[in-house]
Design brief:
two-stranded antiparallel ribbon; 5 strands; elongated
């Protein structure tokens, strides 16, 4: 689960997104998880693959380094039997347009996507700013945690 804090009064209930990970997957045989990483995960962590019929684990900027706490799905063509999500799948997961980050390298794509907000959630929160508050010099803030520091974004 991701939690967002806002001081914007939202009086409507959140429409729950019923989509699951399999809804955004490409039919590819690429982005394999190495046997070395898989063995290390099994030794050091309570590791398990991500269920494609459920929600994804959190995406982090370090995903390109294959950290153990990230989403990996089963893949028959991989020597370990698992693969990472592709950059395109990560973009879909975050609500970005397809190939939005295609102009940069694969590792930079993962960093950009992993450090981003989930667009549909932020769009929903910000859509509840009363029109009377816009342009009046009032600060409406979102707080988020980044490297254990609270930061503010003003609308």
């Amino acid at each position: 689960n991701r939690y967002y804090w806002t001081n914007i009064p939202i009086n409507q209930s959140w429409e729950i997104n019923k989509s699951v990970l399999s809804d955004i997957l490409e039919d590819i045989d690429d982005y394999h998880l190495s046997k070395k990483h898989h063995r290390a995960f099994l030794k050091s962590y309570k590791w398990k693959s991500t269920d494609i019929n459920g929600k994804s684990k959190v995406l982090m900027a370090c995903y390109y380094k294959q950290p153990p706490h990230s989403p990996y799905i089963q893949c028959k063509g991989s020597e370990s039997g698992y693969r990472m999500l592709s950059p395109l799948e990560c973009e879909r997961l975050q609500g970005l347009p397809e190939n939005y980050t295609a102009a940069v390298s694969k590792s930079q794509r993962y960093k950009m996507i992993g450090n981003g907000f989930t667009i549909p959630v932020i769009k929903y929160i910000l859509s509840h700013i009363p029109q009377s508050q816009l342009g009046k010099g009032k600060v409406i803030a979102l707080r988020f945690i980044n490297n254990n520091q609270q930061q503010r974004l003003a609308a």
